[in-house]
Specification:
The protein is 38% helix and 19% strand. It has 401 residues and is α/β, with parallel strands linked by helices. The longest helix is centred in the first third of the chain and has 14 residues, at 4-17.
Length: 401
């Protein structure tokens, strides 16, 4: 590559001329070059080209066989990058949305991602991380307070840092240096919750329909801020917002979150056991989700922390005896067929007494809790197993299933 110092100087001069000031730190650039050099014949992705400052540093570290895709939705600033780096055949510039490039990329195929824009960093994060190979690196900067941060951005940064540290498929290091850098290296394949929203709606519409009385119990009020934990594809979040409240949705399924956002709901991929909020919400709502959380105490602690003083928690989920015959039948089948492996029950179905004690231990005053018998029609048991018990059956062969 040509003289990196001169290219950086030229890009910086041109950036200032067009009023673009979001330039990466030189120390961060040098680190990027070093990391890219550790990926011979690497497949690299830059989310947020800007004027090409960090692109130039990445190219400096790449070998001749490496390839970099750099994406930005601002054609004017990308034109600067192309002016100085467009003749480098190792680099493909894409003017468009980061989300589209992520969607078009193959999972487990990227050696390094530098995320310097919102897609793949503050949203579409789960999808971006899924692109990395084992040993691949996810790099972000601007994690220390910056003068140009918009109001409230510190909450986004805190949530992102906490989320990355909570992943067990990445080794994460924070560098309180330059603009603040985090490097997350994938240490094992990512297991993603891949719920199909269309199948879910077709075969399990009863989940949302039967929850409408729980929304009435929530009694959302105009101007309230409500956290919907396990929001799914957003049917109930929309219902709550129709009552005048503002909803923030959280769900582990990226596919569900995408549909929730399509309905106009602010929503993020995340877990109830790793919520970043403190005294933010007037109420926390959850429907048909908490029975999936084995760490019930951790979930309740995070919910309590998220609520303002005097805030309320209204939820519905499976209790003691739920799906008893189905669970018993699965246990029996696995016992009779040791070749299927060990039956791993994915659900938590507590009694009223057990859950009351748990809530009270975390500072809640329980006003109402009840086990409500709710026989549920099924169009086909195979659909139920495919949607709700796929974690139990996913390793079975077609003949075994």
């Amino acid at each position: 590559m040509r003289n990196i110092k001169q290219i950086i100087k030229d890009i910086e001069t041109k950036s200032k001329a067009i009023g673009f000031e979001q330039i990466s730190d030189n120390q961060v650039g040098a680190l990027l070059a070093t990391l890219c050099a550790s990926k011979p014949s690497g497949k690299l992705l830059e989310l947020g080209t800007g004027c090409g400052f960090s692109t130039a540093w990445m190219a400096e570290g790449m070998d001749i066989q490496s390839r970099l895709i750099s994406v930005d939705n601002d054609a004017e600033v990308m034109a600067v990058a192309k002016e100085y780096l467009g003749d480098d055949e190792r680099i493909t510039f894409v003017c468009g949305s980061g989300e589209s490039v992520i969607d078009e990329s193959e999972e487990n195929s990227i050696d390094l991602i530098f995320a310097d824009t919102w897609p793949g960093k503050y949203h579409y994060l789960e999808e971006a991380l899924a692109l990395l190979k084992v040993g691949g690196m996810y790099v972000i900067d601007d994690m220390l307070p910056q003068d140009n941060w918009p109001e409230g951005h510190d909450v986004n940064v805190e949530a992102l840092v906490k989320y990355l540290h909570g992943r067990d498929d990445f080794h994460v290091v924070e560098l309180a240096w330059a603009s603040g850098v985090m490097i997350a290296t994938k240490i094992k394949p990512t297991e993603r919750n891949k719920w199909n929203p269309n199948n879910y709606n077709k075969h399990t519409a009863f989940v949302s329909e039967l929850a409408l009385p729980v929304v009435e119990l929530l009694n959302p009020k105009k101007g309230e801020k409500i956290l919907d934990v396990g929001c799914g594809e957003g049917t109930l979040a929309v219902e709550i917002e129709c009552r005048g409240a503002k909803v923030v949705g959280i769900d582990m399924s990226a596919e569900m979150i995408e549909q929730c956002r399509d309905k106009g709901i602010e929503a993020y991929v995340g877990s109830v056991t790793d919520l970043p909020y403190e005294e933010v919400f007037d109420a926390v709502f959850s429907n048909a989700m908490l029975h999936w959380v084995k760490d019930a105490r951790g979930a309740v602690q995070n919910i309590a922390k998220s609520l303002k003083s005097g805030g309320r928690f209204v939820c519905e989920f499976g209790g003691e005896g739920n799906a008893y015959h189905l669970v018993s039948a699965m246990e029996e089948v696995f016992t009779k067929h040791p070749e299927f492996g060990v039956f791993d029950n994915p659900w938590y179905f507590p009694s009223v007494r057990e859950y009351t004690r748990l809530l009270e231990a975390e500072g809640f005053s329980v006003e109402y809790m009840e086990i409500i018998p709710r026989p549920t029609p099924m169009d086909d048991i195979s659909h139920w197993l495919d949607i709700f018990a796929n974690g139990v059956t996913k390793h079975l062969s077609k003949a075994q299933f």
